[in-house]
Write a structure and sequence with these properties.
3 helices; mainly beta; 180 residues; 8-stranded antiparallel beta barrel; Lipocalin
């Protein structure tokens, strides 16, 4: 599967909104305003903060991303999270491949080589339908079952982290284990 090459990690940093996804098993099924915030660490790794709101509560998980092959210019990263989020003891590592990124770093198509998970991300919490359809077509061309894509609901004014009570018990994570 071809991936983007020469991605400038500094330009890629910041907030990205999930426009649609083929949800992974550990994502909440009814999450809204889902987003990821990436921050470049001094050692070249990336701090990852994934957030979603379920029933008015903020669920989140933090992790670290790093280049799968530091010598390659391909945008193939590994992301490591510790689970469960309320007692982070088990490391879980997954693939984060940038399959497509527009030249202005405003929207992206992210996938995994297994083709089981896919994300359409945007700097805004909405995306022009024509661009969305182009990204869906790109995913289809590389073998994703795009019928499994689920659009993410976003409010007009996305909540800020401080605005919502946190799900600090990790209930969303436990529910996701049972497909809820």
């Amino acid at each position: 599967m071809e991936v983007a090459k020469g991605v400038d990690l500094e330009r890629y940093m910041g907030r990205w909104y999930e426009i649609a996804s083929i949800p992974s098993r550990d994502q909440p099924r009814n999450g809204t305003n889902t987003r990821a915030t990436y921050t470049l660490n001094s050692d070249g790794t990336v701090h990852v903060l994934n957030e979603t709101w379920t029933d008015g509560k903020r669920g989140f998980i933090e992790g670290t991303a790093y280049k799968a092959d530091p010598k390659s210019d391909e945008a193939k990263l590994k992301v490591k999270f510790y689970v469960p989020p309320f007692l982070p003891i088990i490391p879980v590592t997954g693939d984060y491949w940038v399959l497509y990124l527009d030249e202005d770093y405003q929207y992206a198509l992210i996938g995994q080589p297994s083709r089981n998970s896919l994300w359409i991300l945007s700097r805004q919490n909405h995306l022009n339908e024509e661009i969305y359809e182009q990204l869906v077509e790109k995913a289809k061309e590389v073998g994703y079952d795009v019928t499994k894509l689920k659009k993410t609901t976003h409010s007009d004014n996305p909540p800020e982290t401080e605005d919502a009570p946190a799900d600090n018990k990790g209930i969303w994570w436990l529910k996701s284990l049972f497909g809820k």
